[in-house]
Design goal:
A: 267 residues, alpha+beta, 2 domains, five-stranded antiparallel β-sheet, 10 helices, B: 269 residues, Pyruvate Kinase, Chain: A, domain 1, five-stranded mixed β-sheet
Protein backbone atom coordinates (compact mmCIF):
# COMPACT_ATOMS: atom_id res chain seq x y z
CA UNK A 1 0.00 0.00 0.00
CA UNK A 2 3.01 2.24 -0.37
CA UNK A 3 1.92 3.56 -3.75
CA UNK A 4 -1.48 4.42 -2.39
CA UNK A 5 0.04 6.53 0.31
CA UNK A 6 2.39 8.43 -2.01
CA UNK A 7 -0.42 9.26 -4.40
CA UNK A 8 -2.57 10.50 -1.53
CA UNK A 9 0.33 12.51 -0.20
CA UNK A 10 1.00 13.98 -3.62
CA UNK A 11 -2.64 14.89 -4.00
CA UNK A 12 -2.70 16.54 -0.59
CA UNK A 13 0.47 18.45 -1.44
CA UNK A 14 -0.98 19.50 -4.75
CA UNK A 15 -4.23 20.62 -3.12
CA UNK A 16 -2.26 22.56 -0.59
CA UNK A 17 -0.24 24.12 -3.35
CA UNK A 18 -3.31 24.94 -5.38
CA UNK A 19 -5.21 26.47 -2.51
CA UNK A 20 -2.46 28.32 -0.69
CA UNK A 21 0.11 28.99 -3.35
CA UNK A 22 -2.11 29.02 -6.40
CA UNK A 23 -0.79 32.39 -7.51
CA UNK A 24 2.78 31.21 -7.39
CA UNK A 25 1.91 28.06 -9.25
CA UNK A 26 0.06 29.86 -12.02
CA UNK A 27 2.79 32.48 -12.13
CA UNK A 28 5.50 29.88 -12.69
CA UNK A 29 3.33 28.17 -15.29
CA UNK A 30 2.85 31.42 -17.16
CA UNK A 31 6.54 32.21 -16.99
CA UNK A 32 7.36 28.80 -18.42
CA UNK A 33 4.76 29.37 -21.13
CA UNK A 34 6.32 32.76 -21.87
CA UNK A 35 9.73 31.10 -22.20
CA UNK A 36 8.31 28.66 -24.73
CA UNK A 37 6.33 31.39 -26.52
CA UNK A 38 9.44 33.56 -26.68
CA UNK A 39 11.47 30.76 -28.23
CA UNK A 40 8.67 29.98 -30.68
CA UNK A 41 8.30 33.66 -31.62
CA UNK A 42 12.03 33.91 -32.15
CA UNK A 43 11.99 30.88 -34.38
CA UNK A 44 8.91 31.97 -36.27
CA UNK A 45 10.16 35.52 -36.86
CA UNK A 46 13.48 34.15 -38.05
CA UNK A 47 11.70 31.86 -40.49
CA UNK A 48 9.36 34.60 -41.69
CA UNK A 49 12.23 37.04 -42.27
CA UNK A 50 14.17 34.39 -44.17
CA UNK A 51 11.06 33.70 -46.23
CA UNK A 52 10.82 37.39 -47.10
CA UNK A 53 14.44 37.31 -48.39
CA UNK A 54 15.53 39.78 -45.75
CA UNK A 55 19.07 38.30 -45.58
CA UNK A 56 19.64 39.13 -49.26
CA UNK A 57 18.03 42.55 -48.92
CA UNK A 58 20.30 43.61 -46.07
CA UNK A 59 23.46 42.01 -47.42
CA UNK A 60 26.34 44.46 -47.52
CA UNK A 61 24.83 47.10 -45.23
CA UNK A 62 27.06 48.31 -42.39
CA UNK A 63 24.43 47.15 -39.87
CA UNK A 64 24.61 43.60 -41.17
CA UNK A 65 28.40 43.73 -41.14
CA UNK A 66 28.47 44.92 -37.54
CA UNK A 67 25.98 42.23 -36.57
CA UNK A 68 28.14 39.60 -38.28
CA UNK A 69 31.20 40.81 -36.43
CA UNK A 70 29.28 40.31 -33.20
CA UNK A 71 28.51 36.77 -34.25
CA UNK A 72 24.88 37.25 -35.24
CA UNK A 73 22.98 38.75 -38.18
CA UNK A 74 20.26 41.28 -38.87
CA UNK A 75 17.66 38.52 -38.91
CA UNK A 76 19.06 37.17 -35.65
CA UNK A 77 18.91 40.59 -33.99
CA UNK A 78 15.29 41.15 -35.05
CA UNK A 79 14.22 37.63 -34.05
CA UNK A 80 15.93 37.92 -30.67
CA UNK A 81 14.28 41.29 -30.13
CA UNK A 82 10.81 39.84 -30.79
CA UNK A 83 11.50 36.81 -28.60
CA UNK A 84 12.78 39.02 -25.82
CA UNK A 85 9.66 41.17 -26.02
CA UNK A 86 7.39 38.16 -25.58
CA UNK A 87 9.52 36.94 -22.71
CA UNK A 88 9.44 40.33 -20.97
CA UNK A 89 5.67 40.56 -21.35
CA UNK A 90 5.35 37.05 -19.86
CA UNK A 91 7.67 38.02 -17.02
CA UNK A 92 5.59 41.10 -16.28
CA UNK A 93 2.38 39.10 -16.19
CA UNK A 94 4.04 36.64 -13.81
CA UNK A 95 5.19 39.43 -11.54
CA UNK A 96 1.69 40.83 -11.54
CA UNK A 97 0.10 37.52 -10.60
CA UNK A 98 2.45 36.90 -7.71
CA UNK A 99 1.84 40.47 -6.47
CA UNK A 100 5.46 41.50 -6.17
CA UNK A 101 4.96 45.00 -7.53
CA UNK A 102 2.16 47.50 -6.94
CA UNK A 103 -0.77 46.93 -9.27
CA UNK A 104 -1.15 50.44 -10.68
CA UNK A 105 2.54 50.85 -11.45
CA UNK A 106 2.41 47.63 -13.37
CA UNK A 107 -0.68 48.24 -15.43
CA UNK A 108 0.02 51.81 -16.34
CA UNK A 109 3.67 52.41 -16.79
CA UNK A 110 5.87 49.39 -17.07
CA UNK A 111 3.91 47.46 -19.67
CA UNK A 112 3.39 50.57 -21.75
CA UNK A 113 6.99 51.50 -21.37
CA UNK A 114 8.17 48.11 -22.51
CA UNK A 115 5.87 48.14 -25.49
CA UNK A 116 7.15 51.56 -26.48
CA UNK A 117 10.73 50.54 -25.90
CA UNK A 118 10.17 47.53 -28.12
CA UNK A 119 8.67 49.60 -30.92
CA UNK A 120 11.44 52.18 -30.54
CA UNK A 121 14.12 49.49 -30.82
CA UNK A 122 12.37 48.02 -33.85
CA UNK A 123 12.12 51.44 -35.51
CA UNK A 124 15.80 52.11 -34.88
CA UNK A 125 16.88 48.77 -36.32
CA UNK A 126 14.63 49.10 -39.38
CA UNK A 127 15.63 52.75 -39.83
CA UNK A 128 19.32 51.95 -39.73
CA UNK A 129 18.91 49.13 -42.23
CA UNK A 130 16.73 51.17 -44.60
CA UNK A 131 19.15 54.11 -44.42
CA UNK A 132 22.16 51.91 -45.13
CA UNK A 133 20.36 50.14 -47.95
CA UNK A 134 19.27 53.41 -49.56
CA UNK A 135 22.81 54.71 -49.36
CA UNK A 136 24.15 51.57 -51.05
CA UNK A 137 21.47 51.70 -53.73
CA UNK A 138 22.05 55.37 -54.53
CA UNK A 139 25.81 54.87 -54.56
CA UNK A 140 25.35 52.04 -57.05
CA UNK A 141 23.09 54.16 -59.24
CA UNK A 142 25.40 57.18 -59.14
CA UNK A 143 28.52 55.16 -59.83
CA UNK A 144 28.55 56.24 -63.46
CA UNK A 145 28.40 59.91 -62.47
CA UNK A 146 31.99 61.03 -62.15
CA UNK A 147 31.35 64.10 -60.03
CA UNK A 148 32.89 64.09 -56.55
CA UNK A 149 29.89 65.99 -55.15
CA UNK A 150 27.59 63.12 -56.14
CA UNK A 151 28.93 61.24 -53.11
CA UNK A 152 27.12 63.67 -50.79
CA UNK A 153 23.67 62.65 -51.98
CA UNK A 154 23.67 59.05 -50.67
CA UNK A 155 25.10 60.20 -47.33
CA UNK A 156 22.45 62.92 -47.06
CA UNK A 157 19.69 60.40 -47.76
CA UNK A 158 21.11 57.97 -45.22
CA UNK A 159 21.27 60.52 -42.43
CA UNK A 160 17.82 61.87 -43.28
CA UNK A 161 16.40 58.37 -42.78
CA UNK A 162 18.41 57.93 -39.57
CA UNK A 163 17.13 61.26 -38.31
CA UNK A 164 13.49 60.43 -38.96
CA UNK A 165 13.89 56.95 -37.45
CA UNK A 166 15.48 58.33 -34.29
CA UNK A 167 12.76 60.97 -34.11
CA UNK A 168 10.04 58.31 -34.21
CA UNK A 169 11.91 56.18 -31.67
CA UNK A 170 12.42 59.08 -29.26
CA UNK A 171 8.80 60.17 -29.47
CA UNK A 172 7.77 56.53 -28.84
CA UNK A 173 9.52 56.39 -25.50
CA UNK A 174 8.11 59.79 -24.62
CA UNK A 175 11.10 62.08 -24.87
CA UNK A 176 10.24 65.63 -25.92
CA UNK A 177 11.06 65.86 -29.63
CA UNK A 178 9.57 69.21 -30.48
CA UNK A 179 12.87 71.02 -31.22
CA UNK A 180 13.98 68.11 -33.38
CA UNK A 181 10.62 68.19 -35.16
CA UNK A 182 11.00 71.89 -35.88
CA UNK A 183 14.43 71.18 -37.31
CA UNK A 184 12.95 68.44 -39.52
CA UNK A 185 10.22 70.79 -40.73
CA UNK A 186 12.79 73.41 -41.65
CA UNK A 187 14.84 70.79 -43.46
CA UNK A 188 11.89 69.42 -45.42
CA UNK A 189 10.75 72.93 -46.28
CA UNK A 190 14.22 73.78 -47.54
CA UNK A 191 14.36 70.58 -49.56
CA UNK A 192 10.93 71.00 -51.15
CA UNK A 193 10.94 74.75 -51.64
CA UNK A 194 14.53 75.39 -52.66
CA UNK A 195 14.68 72.11 -54.60
CA UNK A 196 11.42 72.90 -56.33
CA UNK A 197 12.67 76.35 -57.21
CA UNK A 198 15.90 74.97 -58.61
CA UNK A 199 14.22 72.22 -60.61
CA UNK A 200 11.28 74.29 -61.82
CA UNK A 201 12.36 74.16 -65.46
CA UNK A 202 13.26 70.50 -65.33
CA UNK A 203 9.89 69.63 -63.82
CA UNK A 204 8.03 71.64 -66.45
CA UNK A 205 10.03 69.96 -69.22
CA UNK A 206 9.45 66.51 -67.74
CA UNK A 207 5.71 67.07 -67.42
CA UNK A 208 5.54 68.09 -71.07
CA UNK A 209 7.88 65.21 -71.99
CA UNK A 210 5.56 62.65 -70.47
CA UNK A 211 2.75 63.89 -72.67
CA UNK A 212 4.95 63.90 -75.76
CA UNK A 213 6.16 60.36 -75.10
CA UNK A 214 2.68 59.03 -74.47
CA UNK A 215 0.86 60.60 -77.39
CA UNK A 216 3.79 61.03 -79.76
CA UNK A 217 2.50 63.96 -81.83
CA UNK A 218 5.80 63.83 -83.70
CA UNK A 219 8.15 60.87 -83.89
CA UNK A 220 11.78 60.28 -84.73
CA UNK A 221 12.27 61.00 -88.43
CA UNK A 222 9.52 63.62 -88.76
CA UNK A 223 10.45 67.02 -90.07
CA UNK A 224 9.32 69.70 -87.64
CA UNK A 225 9.61 73.40 -86.95
CA UNK A 226 10.13 73.84 -83.26
CA UNK A 227 11.01 76.99 -81.35
CA UNK A 228 12.20 78.64 -84.56
CA UNK A 229 14.37 75.73 -85.65
CA UNK A 230 13.45 73.51 -88.55
CA UNK A 231 14.87 70.02 -88.78
CA UNK A 232 14.44 66.30 -88.44
CA UNK A 233 13.60 64.88 -85.04
CA UNK A 234 16.48 62.68 -83.90
CA UNK A 235 15.48 61.87 -80.36
CA UNK A 236 12.68 62.60 -77.90
CA UNK A 237 13.28 61.92 -74.22
CA UNK A 238 11.61 63.05 -71.01
CA UNK A 239 13.34 66.40 -70.84
CA UNK A 240 14.41 67.44 -74.33
CA UNK A 241 13.81 66.94 -78.03
CA UNK A 242 16.81 66.78 -80.37
CA UNK A 243 16.21 68.13 -83.84
CA UNK A 244 18.88 68.22 -86.47
CA UNK A 245 19.30 70.21 -89.65
CA UNK A 246 22.36 70.40 -91.88
CA UNK A 247 24.83 69.23 -89.32
CA UNK A 248 23.42 71.38 -86.51
CA UNK A 249 21.61 69.68 -83.69
CA UNK A 250 19.22 71.74 -81.56
CA UNK A 251 18.36 70.47 -78.13
CA UNK A 252 14.99 71.99 -77.26
CA UNK A 253 13.49 71.64 -73.76
CA UNK A 254 10.11 69.94 -73.98
CA UNK A 255 8.23 72.73 -72.21
CA UNK A 256 9.09 74.98 -75.17
CA UNK A 257 7.14 72.61 -77.39
CA UNK A 258 4.11 73.30 -75.24
CA UNK A 259 4.64 76.99 -74.85
CA UNK A 260 5.38 77.73 -78.49
CA UNK A 261 3.70 74.84 -80.25
CA UNK A 262 5.22 72.72 -82.95
CA UNK A 263 4.76 72.66 -86.70
CA UNK A 264 4.99 69.27 -88.32
CA UNK A 265 6.14 69.68 -91.91
CA UNK A 266 4.45 67.42 -94.46
CA UNK A 267 5.14 68.23 -98.05
CA UNK B 1 70.58 22.79 -72.57
CA UNK B 2 69.07 26.08 -73.60
CA UNK B 3 67.04 27.93 -71.04
CA UNK B 4 63.43 28.36 -72.07
CA UNK B 5 63.39 31.85 -70.62
CA UNK B 6 66.13 32.90 -73.05
CA UNK B 7 64.36 31.36 -75.98
CA UNK B 8 60.86 32.59 -75.26
CA UNK B 9 61.95 35.83 -73.61
CA UNK B 10 62.41 37.29 -77.08
CA UNK B 11 58.69 37.77 -77.27
CA UNK B 12 58.76 40.43 -74.61
CA UNK B 13 62.26 41.80 -75.31
CA UNK B 14 62.47 45.56 -75.86
CA UNK B 15 58.74 46.10 -75.99
CA UNK B 16 57.54 49.68 -75.45
CA UNK B 17 54.31 48.83 -73.66
CA UNK B 18 52.35 45.95 -72.21
CA UNK B 19 48.64 45.37 -72.84
CA UNK B 20 46.86 43.27 -70.24
CA UNK B 21 43.52 41.86 -71.35
CA UNK B 22 41.12 41.56 -68.42
CA UNK B 23 43.77 41.04 -65.73
CA UNK B 24 42.82 40.09 -62.21
CA UNK B 25 43.56 42.64 -59.52
CA UNK B 26 46.57 40.79 -58.14
CA UNK B 27 47.91 40.15 -61.64
CA UNK B 28 47.69 43.86 -62.41
CA UNK B 29 49.32 44.80 -59.08
CA UNK B 30 52.31 42.62 -59.94
CA UNK B 31 52.94 44.88 -62.95
CA UNK B 32 53.16 48.03 -60.83
CA UNK B 33 57.00 48.18 -61.01
CA UNK B 34 57.42 47.39 -64.72
CA UNK B 35 59.35 50.16 -66.51
CA UNK B 36 57.14 50.23 -69.61
CA UNK B 37 53.58 51.60 -69.59
CA UNK B 38 50.85 49.09 -68.78
CA UNK B 39 47.51 49.36 -70.60
CA UNK B 40 44.50 47.47 -69.33
CA UNK B 41 41.91 46.32 -71.87
CA UNK B 42 38.78 44.81 -70.37
CA UNK B 43 35.00 44.95 -70.16
CA UNK B 44 35.26 47.26 -67.17
CA UNK B 45 38.03 48.96 -65.30
CA UNK B 46 37.88 46.76 -62.23
CA UNK B 47 41.55 47.30 -61.40
CA UNK B 48 41.33 51.11 -61.59
CA UNK B 49 44.11 51.37 -64.16
CA UNK B 50 45.06 54.82 -65.48
CA UNK B 51 45.41 53.59 -69.06
CA UNK B 52 42.25 51.73 -69.83
CA UNK B 53 40.48 50.72 -73.05
CA UNK B 54 36.96 49.39 -72.75
CA UNK B 55 36.31 46.16 -74.59
CA UNK B 56 32.63 46.17 -75.56
CA UNK B 57 32.41 42.51 -76.56
CA UNK B 58 34.38 39.50 -75.43
CA UNK B 59 35.81 38.76 -78.90
CA UNK B 60 36.51 35.03 -78.65
CA UNK B 61 38.80 35.37 -81.65
CA UNK B 62 42.11 36.46 -80.14
CA UNK B 63 43.10 38.46 -83.22
CA UNK B 64 39.91 40.49 -83.14
CA UNK B 65 40.39 41.07 -79.43
CA UNK B 66 43.98 42.29 -79.78
CA UNK B 67 43.07 44.35 -82.82
CA UNK B 68 40.30 46.11 -80.96
CA UNK B 69 42.46 46.71 -77.89
CA UNK B 70 45.40 48.10 -79.87
CA UNK B 71 43.23 50.33 -82.05
CA UNK B 72 41.63 51.67 -78.89
CA UNK B 73 45.01 52.28 -77.26
CA UNK B 74 46.30 54.01 -80.41
CA UNK B 75 43.16 56.12 -80.64
CA UNK B 76 43.30 57.18 -77.00
CA UNK B 77 46.99 58.07 -77.33
CA UNK B 78 48.33 55.40 -74.97
CA UNK B 79 50.43 54.07 -77.85
CA UNK B 80 51.89 55.54 -80.99
CA UNK B 81 52.36 53.62 -84.20
CA UNK B 82 56.11 53.09 -83.90
CA UNK B 83 55.90 51.06 -80.75
CA UNK B 84 56.15 47.33 -80.20
CA UNK B 85 53.66 45.95 -77.73
CA UNK B 86 53.39 42.74 -75.75
CA UNK B 87 49.78 41.65 -75.39
CA UNK B 88 48.96 39.26 -72.56
CA UNK B 89 45.57 37.65 -72.90
CA UNK B 90 43.44 34.62 -72.27
CA UNK B 91 42.92 31.87 -74.81
CA UNK B 92 41.77 28.81 -72.94
CA UNK B 93 40.70 28.99 -69.33
CA UNK B 94 40.21 31.89 -67.00
CA UNK B 95 43.26 34.00 -66.47
CA UNK B 96 46.00 35.25 -68.73
CA UNK B 97 47.87 32.41 -70.44
CA UNK B 98 49.18 33.80 -73.74
CA UNK B 99 51.58 36.56 -74.79
CA UNK B 100 51.68 37.98 -78.31
CA UNK B 101 54.17 40.49 -79.70
CA UNK B 102 52.61 43.07 -82.00
CA UNK B 103 54.26 45.89 -83.89
CA UNK B 104 51.77 48.74 -83.76
CA UNK B 105 53.29 50.24 -86.92
CA UNK B 106 52.75 47.19 -89.09
CA UNK B 107 49.24 46.93 -88.05
CA UNK B 108 46.61 48.10 -90.47
CA UNK B 109 43.68 49.76 -88.79
CA UNK B 110 40.37 48.16 -89.58
CA UNK B 111 38.33 50.84 -87.82
CA UNK B 112 36.79 48.39 -85.38
CA UNK B 113 37.42 50.75 -82.48
CA UNK B 114 35.93 53.70 -84.35
CA UNK B 115 32.86 51.58 -84.94
CA UNK B 116 32.14 52.04 -81.24
CA UNK B 117 33.87 55.28 -80.32
CA UNK B 118 33.20 57.40 -83.40
CA UNK B 119 29.64 56.41 -84.08
CA UNK B 120 26.74 58.70 -83.32
CA UNK B 121 25.06 56.13 -81.17
CA UNK B 122 26.20 55.39 -77.65
CA UNK B 123 28.88 52.64 -77.56
CA UNK B 124 26.73 50.68 -75.12
CA UNK B 125 23.85 50.75 -77.60
CA UNK B 126 26.05 49.31 -80.36
CA UNK B 127 27.26 46.64 -77.97
CA UNK B 128 23.68 45.76 -77.02
CA UNK B 129 22.66 45.47 -80.68
CA UNK B 130 25.67 43.24 -81.32
CA UNK B 131 24.61 41.04 -78.45
CA UNK B 132 21.07 40.79 -79.78
CA UNK B 133 22.35 39.94 -83.27
CA UNK B 134 24.76 37.33 -81.90
CA UNK B 135 22.02 35.80 -79.79
CA UNK B 136 19.70 35.73 -82.78
CA UNK B 137 22.39 34.15 -84.94
CA UNK B 138 23.12 31.49 -82.37
CA UNK B 139 19.57 30.42 -81.74
CA UNK B 140 17.78 31.37 -84.92
CA UNK B 141 14.03 31.51 -84.97
CA UNK B 142 12.43 28.20 -84.01
CA UNK B 143 15.58 26.42 -85.08
CA UNK B 144 15.60 28.04 -88.47
CA UNK B 145 18.33 30.39 -89.55
CA UNK B 146 17.16 34.00 -89.78
CA UNK B 147 18.63 37.20 -91.09
CA UNK B 148 18.28 40.65 -89.61
CA UNK B 149 19.40 44.18 -90.28
CA UNK B 150 19.82 46.78 -87.56
CA UNK B 151 20.48 50.42 -88.41
CA UNK B 152 21.88 52.10 -85.30
CA UNK B 153 22.13 55.84 -84.78
CA UNK B 154 21.15 58.90 -86.80
CA UNK B 155 17.64 57.51 -86.69
CA UNK B 156 15.95 60.72 -87.80
CA UNK B 157 17.79 60.77 -91.07
CA UNK B 158 17.43 57.04 -91.59
CA UNK B 159 13.69 57.26 -91.00
CA UNK B 160 13.48 60.23 -93.32
CA UNK B 161 15.23 58.34 -96.08
CA UNK B 162 13.38 55.07 -95.80
CA UNK B 163 9.79 53.99 -96.07
CA UNK B 164 7.57 51.62 -94.09
CA UNK B 165 6.72 48.22 -95.53
CA UNK B 166 3.81 47.84 -93.15
CA UNK B 167 2.57 49.46 -89.94
CA UNK B 168 5.31 49.96 -87.37
CA UNK B 169 4.97 47.56 -84.40
CA UNK B 170 7.21 49.77 -82.29
CA UNK B 171 5.11 52.89 -82.68
CA UNK B 172 4.46 54.57 -79.32
CA UNK B 173 6.34 51.84 -77.54
CA UNK B 174 9.35 52.97 -75.63
CA UNK B 175 11.58 49.95 -75.61
CA UNK B 176 15.34 50.21 -75.73
CA UNK B 177 17.79 47.60 -76.90
CA UNK B 178 19.25 46.05 -73.79
CA UNK B 179 15.85 45.83 -72.08
CA UNK B 180 15.31 42.16 -71.22
CA UNK B 181 12.04 42.03 -73.16
CA UNK B 182 13.74 43.09 -76.38
CA UNK B 183 15.48 39.78 -76.98
CA UNK B 184 12.13 38.04 -77.11
CA UNK B 185 10.42 40.75 -79.14
CA UNK B 186 13.16 41.00 -81.72
CA UNK B 187 13.27 37.26 -82.13
CA UNK B 188 9.60 37.30 -83.01
CA UNK B 189 9.87 40.34 -85.23
CA UNK B 190 12.93 39.03 -87.05
CA UNK B 191 10.52 37.07 -89.23
CA UNK B 192 9.39 40.39 -90.65
CA UNK B 193 11.06 41.77 -93.70
CA UNK B 194 12.95 45.04 -93.64
CA UNK B 195 15.27 46.75 -91.20
CA UNK B 196 15.12 47.67 -87.53
CA UNK B 197 15.94 51.30 -86.82
CA UNK B 198 17.55 52.11 -83.47
CA UNK B 199 18.14 55.67 -82.27
CA UNK B 200 21.33 57.15 -80.77
CA UNK B 201 20.10 56.51 -77.25
CA UNK B 202 19.06 52.94 -78.03
CA UNK B 203 15.32 53.38 -78.53
CA UNK B 204 13.88 51.02 -81.10
CA UNK B 205 12.21 53.43 -83.45
CA UNK B 206 10.81 51.13 -86.07
CA UNK B 207 10.75 47.71 -87.63
CA UNK B 208 9.57 46.84 -91.16
CA UNK B 209 11.62 49.60 -92.67
CA UNK B 210 12.55 49.52 -96.32
CA UNK B 211 15.89 51.27 -96.84
CA UNK B 212 16.40 52.85 -100.21
CA UNK B 213 19.94 54.18 -100.39
CA UNK B 214 21.84 54.26 -103.62
CA UNK B 215 24.38 51.47 -103.73
CA UNK B 216 26.73 53.67 -105.71
CA UNK B 217 30.28 53.60 -104.39
CA UNK B 218 29.70 50.95 -101.75
CA UNK B 219 32.54 48.50 -101.61
CA UNK B 220 31.52 45.23 -100.06
CA UNK B 221 32.83 41.75 -100.78
CA UNK B 222 31.17 40.01 -103.69
CA UNK B 223 28.75 37.33 -102.73
CA UNK B 224 26.97 39.24 -100.02
CA UNK B 225 23.31 39.74 -100.69
CA UNK B 226 20.82 42.57 -100.88
CA UNK B 227 20.58 42.93 -97.12
CA UNK B 228 24.29 43.68 -96.83
CA UNK B 229 24.18 45.96 -99.81
CA UNK B 230 21.37 47.99 -98.26
CA UNK B 231 23.29 48.14 -94.98
CA UNK B 232 26.46 49.39 -96.65
CA UNK B 233 24.48 51.91 -98.68
CA UNK B 234 22.61 53.46 -95.75
CA UNK B 235 25.81 53.87 -93.74
CA UNK B 236 27.31 55.79 -96.63
CA UNK B 237 24.42 58.21 -96.81
CA UNK B 238 23.89 58.69 -93.08
CA UNK B 239 26.04 58.58 -89.96
CA UNK B 240 24.45 55.34 -88.86
CA UNK B 241 26.18 52.03 -88.16
CA UNK B 242 24.64 48.85 -89.53
CA UNK B 243 24.78 45.47 -87.88
CA UNK B 244 23.67 42.64 -90.12
CA UNK B 245 22.97 39.02 -89.36
CA UNK B 246 23.34 37.05 -92.57
CA UNK B 247 20.69 34.49 -93.32
CA UNK B 248 22.92 32.37 -95.54
CA UNK B 249 26.15 32.06 -93.55
CA UNK B 250 24.83 33.31 -90.16
CA UNK B 251 27.76 35.67 -89.59
CA UNK B 252 27.29 39.02 -87.92
CA UNK B 253 28.81 41.88 -89.87
CA UNK B 254 29.11 45.56 -89.05
CA UNK B 255 29.21 48.38 -91.58
CA UNK B 256 30.22 51.99 -91.16
CA UNK B 257 30.75 54.62 -93.83
CA UNK B 258 29.80 52.12 -96.53
CA UNK B 259 32.53 49.66 -95.60
CA UNK B 260 32.60 46.29 -93.91
CA UNK B 261 34.35 46.84 -90.59
CA UNK B 262 33.88 43.72 -88.53
CA UNK B 263 32.83 40.13 -89.05
CA UNK B 264 31.92 37.88 -86.12
CA UNK B 265 30.82 34.29 -85.88
CA UNK B 266 27.96 33.98 -83.38
CA UNK B 267 28.79 30.33 -82.81
CA UNK B 268 32.08 31.33 -81.17
CA UNK B 269 30.30 33.25 -78.38
Amino acid sequence: MVGQITVTELLTALRKLLTERVDLFVGILIFLLALVAGAVTRRYVRGALRELDIPEAVAGTPFERTARRLGTSTVGVLANLCGLFVLVVGGLITLRIVHTIPQDLLTLRITDFFRQLFIAALVVVVGVIVGDKLELYLRERLRGVKVPEAGVLPLLTKYSVFYIASLIALSQIGIATRPLLVLLAAYVFGLVFIGGLAMKDLLAAAAAGVYLLLTEPYAIGDEVKLDGHRGIVQEVDTFVTHIEAEGEEYVVPNDRVFRRGVIIVRE
Amino acid sequence: MADLRDLLGGIVEDVDAVCLFAPSRSYYKAFADVEVPVIVIARENGVEADSFVELPLDFPDIRERIRFGLEGALDDGYLDDEQVVACATRVFDDGIDTVARVDAGEFSESGVYELFSESRADPNVIRDVFEVAIELGKKGQKGKQVGALFVVGDAGKVMNESRPLSYNPFEKSHVHVGDPIVNVMLKEFSRLDGAFVVSDSGKIVSAYRYLEPSAEGTDIPKGLGARHMAAAGITRETNAVCIVLSESDSLVRAFQGGELILELDPEAY
